[in-house]
Design brief:
Layout: E1 4-10, H1 16-34, E2 50-56, E3 59-73, E4 76-88, H2 97-112, E5 117-121, H3 127-132, E6 136-138, E7 142-145, E8 151-154, E9 160-164, E10 177-182
Parallel strand pairs: 4-5, 7-10
Antiparallel strand pairs: 1-2, 2-3, 3-4, 3-10, 5-9, 6-9, 7-8
Protein name: Aminoglycoside 2'-N-acetyltransferase I
Domain N-acetyltransferase: 4-159
GO cellular component, one term: cytosol
Length: 184
């Protein structure tokens, strides 16, 4: 396999060609269930400010994105990077590329500054992957705006994970989480 490169791209600077490459990556996986990928609101979720893109040669084979947001946890405001859009092309899986992307995302959050934690929600079956990347599961009620634009509140127990960036794990406040918008 050719060498893998990972680039960090600000959302505002995505070129039309790179948008098309990302659309091809996502649509290969999700088109049948969700339709065409939209970079401004991918499958109804919040868009990202920062995209980490993995390439093998010129081919885009992986992506993870994040967006800075202030959320509330209990009575405390917390500055997070909401992480989503983690995807590895089917022909590139099984090579630890996802872990490399997640570590690059952590590094980009740290370099950006002012981010206390990474934050994500996921399916139960991928929790072990994120745990292997250093993320910690939390238990909390979560409020957000659903993909169809409605307010939703999920009970404690769904997979929510955090990654200490500039704060220590013990400083994560207790209480319900309000994402103040759509999830990623």
């Amino acid at each position: 396999m050719k060498a893998v490169s990972i680039e960090v791209v600000q959302h505002a600077t995505l070129s039309p060609g790179l948008i098309e490459d990302l659309r091809c990556l996502f649509d290969a996986e999700y088109f049948a269930d969700f339709g065409e990928w939209d970079p401004q609101q991918p499958y109804g979720y919040a868009s990202h400010d920062v995209h980490l893109i993995a390439r093998v040669g010129a081919d885009v084979v992986g992506h993870v994105g994040w967006v800075r947001r202030s959320i509330s946890v209990g009575a405390t405001d917390v500055d997070i990077a909401g992480v989503g859009g983690m995807l590895i092309a089917a022909n590139s899986r099984g090579r630890k590329l996802g872990e490399r992307l997640m570590h690059a995302a952590d590094q980009s959050m740290t370099e950006t500054g002012g981010i206390q934690f990474g934050y994500l929600g996921c399916r139960e079956e991928v929790v072990p992957f994120y745990r292997a990347c250093g993320w910690q599961r939390i238990t909390a009620r979560e409020r957000s705006v659903s993909r169809d634009g409605q307010a939703v509140e999920d009970p404690p127990g769904q997979p929510l994970l955090i990654l200490p960036v500039s704060s220590c794990l013990a400083s994560w406040p207790s209480g319900s989480v309000d994402l103040r918008g759509r999830a990623w």
